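Notes to self after the call with IL:
- keep both proteins in one doc
- input above output, always
- annotate only the second one for now

Protein 1:
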Amino acid sequence: MKHSEAKARILDIFNKLDHVRRAEKGERHTQSFVVEKLSNGSSIIIYFPGYKSAPSRFGGYTYDYRVDLMLPREDAFQTTLSHVNIIMDLCSKCLYNPSLKPDMITILNDLYHHGTSGVSVRYNHVYQHSKVSEQLINEAQKTHIRLGKTYNKDGNRFDLTFEELFHSILWISLQEDLNYPMPRFEGRRMSFSRYLESVWQIDNSHTLSEVIDRALSHSRPSEWSGCNYPPKLRE
C-alpha cells in the first residue's frame, strides 16, 4: 500500500466514524477499526480520537490516533506500538543478525518512498526469531525514566515478523504525514530518520539511548554526520 492510499483510507474511516465530532464531545479512543489484516492473521488496529485530536494551530485539523497490533500467534496478545517500540525492534533484529543491516536500511528507504508496495519490502530475508534482549529493554526503560516518560515494555514483549514490522511502520508514521505534511513540515521524514538512526548507530559513535531520546523530543534534532537521511518530499 502506498502512503497516499493509506492516507485516503484513514481519512475516509475518520469521516465515516465522525472523528472530529467525537473529539469535540471529549471522547477518547472510543472507536476502533482494523486497517489491515496481515498474511499470518495479525491485525493492525487504530483507536481514535486521541488525546491530541483538535483544530491545528497551523490550520486544518490534528488527527490523533493510536496503533495497536494483535497477534493471534501469541494467544491474541494485543498492544499499542510507539516509535520507540519500532526503534527497539529494528535495533534488536540488526544486532541479532548483523548481515541484515545494509538491507534493512535499503528497505526502510524503500518503505519511506513507496510504502509497503515497495519491491524490497517483499521480505527477501527468511524471518529469524530474535526476541528483544533484556539489556535493550533495560536501556529503553532507563532512558524513559531519565526523561520522565513511560516505556511500554509490552510493545517489545514479542519480536515482530518483517511483515508486522514494516506494515506497522506505515500506519504509525502516517500520523506525521496527516498532521505535519511535507514539504512545509517534516511529515514521516521525522520518524523514518529515527528508524534509520536505530540501525546506523550500531556501528557508529552514537547509542540506542540517544536515538530514543531524539524520538521522544518535542524539538527537531540536528542530523548526525555520516548518517544518510531521507530527502524531504513534495506530495
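Protein 2 (the one to annotate):
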Amino acid sequence: MSQTPEELEADIARQREELAATVTELQTKVEDRAKQTARQAAIVGGAVAAVFVVVLVVRKIRARR
C-alpha cells in the first residue's frame, strides 16, 4: 500500500511522538532507579559509620580495663 507524502509525514510525526513518550518513560525509570540506588548507598554508608563508631567505643572501653 502506497502512502501519500502527507500520510507519510503524519505517520512519521506519530512515530516521533511515540518515541518521545517512550524515551520520557525510560528516563523516568532510570531516574527512579538512580534515586533508589542513592538512598541505598546512604543507608549502607550510615550503617558503616555506625559500625565504625561502635568499634571505636568498644576499643576505648577495652583500653580502660
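Annotation: Residues 4 and 10 are 10 Å apart (CA to CA). Residues 5-64 form the longest helix (60 residues).
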